[in-house]
Amino acid sequence: MRALDKISNLLNQVLLWMAGFFLVAMILMTGANIVIRIFWMPIRGTYELMGYFGAIVTAFALGYTQAGRGHIAVDILVLRFSQKTRRILNGINYFICMVFFAAVGWRIAIYATTLRETGEITETLRIIYYPFTYGVSLGCFVLSLVLLVDLLRLFLGDREGNG
Amino acid sequence: MNLALVGILGIIVLLFVLFFLGMPVGFAMAVVGFSGFAYVVSFDAAVSMVGIDIWTTFSKYGLTVIPLFILMGYLAFNSGIAEKLYNTAYKWFGHWRGGLAIATIGADELFAAICGSNTATAATMGAIALPQMRKYNYDTRLSSGTVVTGGTLGTVMPPSVLLIIIGLQTEQSIIKLFLGGILPAVLLGILFILTIVVICRINPKFGPAGPRTNLREKIKSLTGVIEALAIFVLVIGGLYAGVFTPTEAGAAGVILTLIVTVPSRRLTWQGIINSMKDSLKISCMAFVLVTGALIFGRFLAVTRLPFIVADLAASLPVSPYLILTIILVIYLVGGCFVDALGFLVLTIPIFFPLGKALGFEAIWYSIIITMVTTMGAITPPVGINIYVVKALAPEIELGTIFKSASFFLLACIVCTIILIIFPQIVLVIPNMAR
């Protein structure tokens, strides 16, 4: 459990830094496009690259956001339940979301593989874009891992903490 | 089973998952939408729909506006721009009765013009204004209420994250939504100030007058507004003139905020890192909400429920304004229990087609809904701004903050009524941009 927690934290930190890197790239690319457009002509492919970079920014922050409880939830009723009931309800919640995002990650990976095998390229720059699709798939898998750690912590955390 | 009935059942299941499992709103909409779609169409189609929808939403150019505007707001939040704004407002209004509270609203209005989040606005201004008001013996009922409600200006005044999400979800022009929010935000600020004036007239001890400043000091302090105004004019002016797309405006706003604050060392390296981390978290949350709503919307669309409800409401022999009142009451009550953004995203698939069927102008309708949902941020039991202020001033009782915010709730309601009677207030600037 502790090892899994460490792996999950490390993955989230690495992906978060990469998300930050892509966010900075988005700002610089847009800024450069605005300036160069005034004096010469727009940078080709800015729009499509922005979309793909944006996908990585979001997907790579999925696990970090869940680990930091950053998603909006309605806990007004849940907080009124007993500790035990709350634990069971949270467990069901984590389990459903974990399975869902693992399935989504798997489906997106299949889609990315199809893009790779068919040699799909972007309209303007004519470059492959399946690596970004794999990136979104990875983000979903890491979110699923964070939810698995949350689930395990819910039922094993205390025991490990005492031991 | 009747498809509309499946849709209604889907909504009931969604509410159950939200309230009893405490599942995040975006996840819950995606999971229930997926399950419903699988039931109505097929499992394979649902799996395929969800995978493709997540990829296409995440990689959509239009949505890249979200992280950029959020980052711009967080950079402003960590940079100390707000302190200068407050100082200027303080120099001009501080010597009036309730002047510090008025200065807080004035600074809120200006800060909201560069920061699109109500919690960030409340947190920033709370940290600056609450100690000042404490120093001049302001009653906590006035000081906390001012900070809590002033934060709501952040969601109406552009660039607003809430308006961006509405624009993306309903496929409206974000630029026009932004322009539509300007005058309502100004009106709301004026009504907040009037509320402070009335409170201090009834009970002068609530806001004793501060020290007087001379005209020279007042004029000198205006330099504090220049930075924020420059950023606002570049971003919103660029959008209005058609120079930028919303995404470009966000990036330009980030760059200008950095240019203004980094050389003067007000924004440190740590401040930039913190801004990036917070922005990534908040924009990821927003993306998940938008994607979840899209998936849930697909399920509702195959059940045809939104269209049936819209047609039914449009055919009722009652005034559309009566139905609007019912919708607004639902938003007001719902906003009390669910976070404003979450509740908006949750309800738009049903209430937006309904508003369209009733013949309401989309921009006006969006601003009205935003205004009402925002009230949820200052009402019990989940008023997010209340908890922000409580964290900043733990010595103030939660009940006191809720009570103090209720003084200003009337101003929000009056503002909404004025906007319903005079829709031109919302529409005049977007119409000029046409």
Topology:
The complex is a heterodimer of chains A (163) and B (434).
Chain A: H1 2-39, H2 46-67, H3 83-117, H4 130-162
Chain B: H1 3-21, H2 25-40, H3 43-58, H4 65-79, H5 81-93, H6 99-112, H7 118-135, H8 140-150, H9 153-156, H10 161-170, H11 174-202, H12 215-221, H13 223-240, H14 246-261, H15 269-303, H16 305-315, H17 320-337, H18 340-357, H19 362-375, H20 384-392, H21 398-421, H22 424-432
Please describe what this structure looks like.
The complex is a heterodimer of chains A (163) and B (434). With 163 residues, chain A is mainly alpha-helical. Chain A has one domain (2-160). Chain A is built from four helices and no strands. Chain A has helices spanning 2-39, 46-67, 83-117, 130-162. Chain A is elongated and about 65 Å long. The two termini of chain A are 13 Å apart. The mean pLDDT of chain A is 91. Chain B has 434 residues and is mainly α. Chain B contains 22 helices and no strands. Chain B has helices spanning 3-21, 25-40, 43-58, 65-79, 81-93, 99-112, 118-135, 140-150, 153-156, 161-170, 174-202, 215-221, 223-240, 246-261, 269-303, 305-315, 320-337, 340-357, 362-375, 384-392, 398-421, 424-432. The longest helix of chain B has 35 residues, at 269-303. The radius of gyration of chain B is 22 Å and the shape is globular. The model of chain B has no long low-confidence stretch (mean pLDDT 89). At the A-B interface, helix 1, helix 2, helix 3 and helix 4 of A face helix 1, helix 2, helix 3, helix 4 and helix 14 of B.
